[in-house]
Design a protein that fits this description.
Blueprint: H1 2-15, E1 18-20, E2 25-26, H2 27-35, H3 41-48, H4 60-74
Antiparallel strand pairs: 1-2
Helix pairs in contact: 2-4
The protein binds FE2/S2 (inorganic) cluster.
FE2/S2 (inorganic) cluster (FES) binds near residues 51 and 52.
Amino acid sequence: MEADRGRSEDSFIENLKTICLCKNIKKGTILKAVYGGCYTVDAVNKKLGTGGGDCKGERCGPKIKEMIEEFLKKV
Ligand code: FES
């Protein structure tokens, strides 16, 4: 029980990490878009506005791609 709570807290904190620094978009928000059917970086960018900052997705694009790949491995 205590271990489950720890894992849940870890996941909560992990989801608060900012993935798109330019647009201040958190990991949890991106995961929600991926779970909702955005299976490409372009789809996530269109839905959330990631990739539209000063770096044009150079920093967040690879992280988003990795998150999508991780998700698709599980389904
Ligand atoms: S970090 Fe996402 S557009 Fe720059």
